[in-house]
């Protein structure tokens, strides 16, 4: 969603949180994924796949890949022709749209189940004032999505990410700074009824130094989610990074709340709020909104390969003599130690400035583009 940067947020983001990516460890190639809390450094930009030039899609907030293209939702609600589920071909051209039977308020994510069912998360709530949020279900070959209202057990939350459990139940992941919460329906969803949610866990975002337009602030907010085609992994993203978790036995909640993610840097996307897997599961795909007050360039669909899932060429015979003992290895250990110290320092600074961050979040949420957005 577009945001106006207030003076309070400017003050928070101007502090020295290490907005530029740090130097990679010795022997670590640019763009390499990392695990745990080590900062994601030396990040490489994604490869451009296609460009979305349809004027109805300036604020794409949800993305899923299909065998012949993509499905997206646009979080703008102030124009009727933007309140649709959009189907795109492989060149990012819109081929058809599906209307909602009633007006959504703030559609922030989209996820596609293995059977083709599409769930749209109408879960944005900048001002934390909605008594209910909504999940729209578009079954395969259906002409219109069905509305399911849900309510939080502990008061309103802003959220922008959806996941699916192994049995196809939507999981809402909140945008609470630093420690997002996970919520599941407390019973089966039924159209025409409000279903209570239950909080099933939370997790702490790992430390990162990946460069992004919102600096430290952009690394503390979850803005999108996806499940791999085989269900064996899930990914959540911030404005800076993608966090991928391995899933065992379809237990997505446990995997996220107890697992250690590997970090895939998504550096300097204008306003990255979407993530999904490629149909073969070998790459992550993202699509940014147009940045408020930034470049007027059309959003580009970007591809970030996952090296461990791409076919590997046969290793070439080495003609280099073995390195002397204690040479490169000791240098790499020293560089990694430096990164560990940096990670702890950034964490300490984050804790010290928690109050300022909270004020910044509140100020951003109060800045809306217009009264017609209904948030």
Keywords:
8-stranded mixed β-sheet; alpha+beta; 5-stranded antiparallel β-sheet; 375 residues; disordered C terminus; Neuraminidase
Average pLDDT works out at 79
CATH class: Mainly Beta
Identify the CATH architecture: 6 Propeller
Largest sheet: 8 strands, mixed
Helix fraction, binned, reads 10-25%
What gap, in angstroms, lies between the N and C termini?
11 Å
Q: Assign the structural class, choosing from mainly alpha, mainly beta, alpha/beta, alpha+beta, or little secondary structure.
A: alpha+beta
Number of strands: 21
Strand ordering within the main sheet: 7-8-9-10-14-13-12-11
How large is the radius of gyration? 21 Å
Notes on the structure:
It contains five helices and 21 strands. It is an alpha+beta fold and 375 residues long. The strands form four sheets. The chain has an eight-stranded mixed β-sheet with strand order 7-8-9-10-14-13-12-11, covered by helices on one side. Strands 1-18-17-16-15 form a five-stranded antiparallel β-sheet. Strand 19 and strand 20 form a beta hairpin. Residues 2-41, 317-352 and 361-375 have low confidence and may be disordered. The protein has one domain (15-307, 338-354): 6 Propeller (Neuraminidase).
Secondary structure blueprint with pairings:
Layout lengths: L6 H7 L20 E2 L11 E5 L8 E6 L3 E6 L9 E6 L4 E6 L9 E4 L5 E5 L10 E6 L7 E6 L7 E6 L5 E5 L6 E5 L8 E9 L12 H4 L5 E4 L5 E5 L3 E6 L5 H7 L3 E4 L10 E2 L5 E5 L12 E6 L22 H25 L1 H13 L9
Parallel strand pairs: 10-14
Antiparallel strand pairs: 1-18, 2-21, 3-4, 4-5, 5-6, 7-8, 8-9, 9-10, 11-12, 12-13, 13-14, 15-16, 16-17, 17-18, 19-20, 20-21
